[in-house]
């Protein structure tokens, strides 16, 4: 039986004149695993929401053409009926979890579908076992790591025993260890021949578990290939914003396949900048009221450097940033010695620290308190009584925001919103910028844009400290890596020095770009 | 005559101070609570945490019924019964996980609710109503005299000590219910509330909306906290006097509401999709993985509810049960 059969599909959102998705013909057989790639906004989410019936049943849109999912038309089938055929796992684990305990979350769908009590328990235990969370069943969902949360959400979907699974960027918001846990499950699903549609940016990691790759761009399927054809199409994929490891181009050039010897592959690192003017030095200690040390470390930054702060979740990275900028949770106690450009800011108030250090949180949307872009950027200047129209214009130009200066920042695209946030903190006078996981949940195209922006700002003397798990971004755009473990910075060096260390994966939860493993093993066997 | 009578007798100081009282009076309860417990404190007082006390073992239906009974009793009896009930409920917070902290938070929240309640009643209470409580107007103590144009806003010409006392009495109707409702939220998981509401045949969509709200409230305070801090980092309050800091804090909190709500709405959409793709509303009812039973504490609570109802009846019979205006201060 066919899992998916689409003919002449056109999906047009209300108020739009042009369709956001157009598919002439697409068939996915039962048991097939398909990877969907493409830039943000290309139509990937529209595609999967059309399969599971969210469009048009929950999100209004006109859906023309023929669509059949296991013989059912999702437009005419209630979502709860479709959910028995197709399970959906979404991107953000925190937003999709509703219940307080893991066991309640896993049982949620079964209770909705009126399964008898005994059957619910049996199915909960079975699906928890499959995703490896049996030991977590009594835990509170809000205390789980990102990976554990995502596995809990997946167990809840699997408990309903769907014939197919849709995984919408399941690893975008979780750490590398959580990502590895999810990918391990893909292997199991593939072994059981469950139909899979995966939207994922980490192509090289997911490749062993799929049969086929579909590239969507501008609402159209522009490439539909078997995974073995990826090497031939690597240029094309890369041009359309897909994250392609360097050795794919090497394989293409040498007309090799995935099983070929890669000993000749050389990974070239970009030049790294090394600053020699100390701009920030800090000694930070943060502990809980019951005396548990969360951070106890020293940090120094040189002018113009782009420094990545890496390490496992819970290592103390975000706490370190918050302690320095002065926005720690008031339940925590801290001791801080902070010097920026020879000025002692240890006891400085928030607005004074903000003159020197800008902080971009992961949820930077909550920064936008003004209703136009130009007002938002001018906010800091006006508050500090140094508003200057020419300077505002300069910021609008520097961040390519001239055309949207009268628009509400909250209504802009993700990339534009991030640029407004960045411009706003720099307009406040900051010369050092702390960023908390800025690449989380973004495709390679947008991560590359961010990397280039950061490098451009470095040219004018801005220093960056970026908390991230994104080793490819670090390798390509950062000058230095600091690794935190149990509240201390324990390793420091150029990205290549850190990524080449043997214990980096198991000891520190950092997964280097696969180029480093290829260089080390001379083949791709480590991925299988 | 109060010692500061010269201030309201002079038109200039009368106008200035009246407007300060007007604005600060509205903002004071909010400022007080923000200053004392902070936005993160709000988060703690609205979020369920696992615990071992008897409140966590009780059936959610019992807790809901208790809240309803308390609301009824506080509404139909004299003010001090409401005050005693409030005290009784907030003492129960000591039995919760991290009880002392929660007790302090709820005490402060109750205190500020009393101030807020008082302030929303006192300036508007006509003398005719006050006379039913305090029969001799000659004994009234004038605290402040408003400028004549304040009458257009519904203010009485004078603010008296008796009006303030009356305002405090009225506020005890709110505090008993508020502390009982928070007690339910703090000791019951969203899943159990969902099961309970389903049993009570409350439509699932309505229950889900309420629970998304319950689940979201702590997050709102956390995000507001981040947004407020970000504004101060960007220079809000730069170079201003410390005395204005609370005003800036309040301003920052108000303007942070829009981005916070927009951010949460984006997350709410994900939650709605996640729920619907897991069979939510497939049938009018739901089955239960675990059956919520009644334990000895529930039976004790039923006994307490019964006694409260008897108390309300007796209070009314013996003249302590009149609704607005109160008698028997």
From TrEMBL, chain A:
SUPFAM superfamilies cross-referenced by the UniProt entry: P-loop containing nucleoside triphosphate hydrolases
Domain (ABC transporter): residue spans on this chain: 6-243, 279-511
UniProt keyword list: ATP-binding, Cell membrane, Membrane, Nucleotide-binding, Translocase, Transport
Main location (coarse class): membrane
Pfam families: ABC_tran
Membrane topology note: Peripheral membrane protein
Database matches in InterPro entries: AAA+_ATPase, ABC_transporter-like_ATP-bd, ABC_transpr_CbiO/EcfA_su, ECF_ABC_transporter_ATP-bd, P-loop_NTPase
Keyword Cytoplasm attributed: no
UniProt keyword Transport, yes or no: yes
GO terms, molecular function: ATP binding; ATP hydrolysis activity; ATPase-coupled transmembrane transporter activity
Cellular compartment(s): Cell membrane
GO cellular component, as recorded: ATP-binding cassette (ABC) transporter complex
Family assignment from sequence similarity: Belongs to the ABC transporter superfamily.
Role played: Probably part of an ABC transporter complex. Responsible for energy coupling to the transport system.
Name of the protein this chain belongs to: Cobalt ABC transporter ATP-binding protein
Lineage: Archaea, Thermoproteota, Thermoprotei, Sulfolobales, Sulfolobaceae
TrEMBL record, chain B:
Chief location: membrane
GO cellular component: plasma membrane
Coiled coil start-end: none
Organism placement in taxonomy: Archaea, Thermoproteota, Thermoprotei, Sulfolobales, Sulfolobaceae
CDD domains in UniProt: EcfT
Keywords assigned: Membrane, Transmembrane, Transmembrane helix
InterPro entries: ABC/ECF_trnsptr_transmembrane (IPR003339)
Topology of this chain in the membrane: Multi-pass membrane protein
PANTHER family to which the protein is assigned, alphabetical: PROTEIN ABCI12, CHLOROPLASTIC
Species the sequence originates in: Candidatus Acidianus copahuensis
UniProt-recorded name of the protein: Cobalt ABC transporter
Cellular localization per UniProt: Membrane
UniProt keyword Membrane, yes or no: yes
Transmembrane segments: 16-42, 78-96, 103-122, 163-185, 243-265, 299-320
